[in-house]
Automatic annotation (TrEMBL):
Protein keywords: Signal
Signal peptide start and end residues: 1-20
Keyword hit for Signal: yes
Organism: Algoriphagus iocasae
Protein name: Antitoxin component YwqK of YwqJK toxin-antitoxin module
Amino acid sequence: MSKFYFLLIGTLLLSKMAFAQKSEAISDPDSTGQVSSSLLPTTMPLLLFDDNKEKEEKKEKKKKARKNIWFGIKTRKGYSKREIRGQEILEFFNYTEESRRPDPYIRDVYWYDTQERSVRSSGYEEGKGYLLHGPYERTINETVVESGMFYFGKKHKTWMLFDSQNVLQDKNHFSEGWPEESRVSYYERSTQTIEEIIPIQYGLEEGNYFYFYDDKQVAVTGEYQYGEKVGLWTEYWDTGNTKAIRKREIQYQEEPYSKNFRPYIRAEWDKDGNLVYRKEQ
């Protein structure tokens, strides 16, 4: 009886250890290099700056303001109000109740958070709020400091920044979220097979960076802020655009211009998604 009891305890302990190791592997984000990504398999971004589309939009100019219809979409008007250091900040905007899956290539997607009654640029999920669509204006103490247009949550067309005296300080142009200063290179221009997208705003790299294999699969993703690489940059194996398997992750500074920070390889995986290296924390 005593022998049976010790065998039972030993079996239970081994089972518990095995279960714990399995649970740890499941919860470990590096246990496999294969990831679920909205970018992979990819269809690539559409042509970024379409002159013909711009001409068509100009033809519809007279129809835009009628009944809050912008780019053919019925919208509602909204506003948010807050105070910071004695300054009253108001945001006037339009939003659409139509749902649309955010473009995974665009970093900043603006939406109206109905619970917080505020405009946000990240964290949008269907049912939590509404995408901004149409004209936008921000004022500080009743002086307009920013104005522009949104297209399903993405900055679109001309955006202008003003100082406290309402004097124009800067002007930028967007095409459905992409700054039109962005540098785009192609493997094949006639088929719009994109090789690299470097987002440029106000003369500096700003936004999501992408590099593609010639089979249109994403090869490298990362983010720029104020001309500096920030956060986690990820390289992917070329799997023929069938699945996403990470190849390497490189950790950059979390905030631009951080002093004494040296980028380092955080983890690496082989072509089958097996972890081959991870930097110990």
